[in-house]
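discrete fold record:
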Amino acid sequence: MLQTKKVSNVIRYLGLVIFVLLIISVVATNSVSAAGNYHDTLYEYIEGGATFTQVTTPLREKWDYTSSYAYNMKSNTDIDKVKVGGSEGPTLQDVVYDCTYGSPRSLLMGRSGYFPNLVKEREYDYACLTFEFYKVGAYLYIWWSPDSI
């Protein structure tokens, strides 16, 4: 009789552990699937002779309230200012509004950064990044995404 009670308690305990693990896996799966448009897209740009340059990435859908992300992987220049733009439409012919939160941040060569913004708070559906830098013969090779993990 005593042996049966111990086995019954062990089974009950294992059932509780399995239930808790199942709940944790469901929550983790749902939180990952709720993440935004965080897949990186390559932005390349070649500048011949200008000293000050301002270039803008194509607009991409902004799905959530997270910061935008960029990785200055193989550019030959630091980016002095990164600004986040927001737009109602998907093309740069649509009006792009400055949605940078706070002061623009820099993006050094070989570094990545997160860029807080107000795109979703201002109810825009698309975001882009604007890079400002001083460099003759600049080459940009930057991975970016409108949302981050």
Observations:
- DSSP finds one helix and ten strands in the chain.
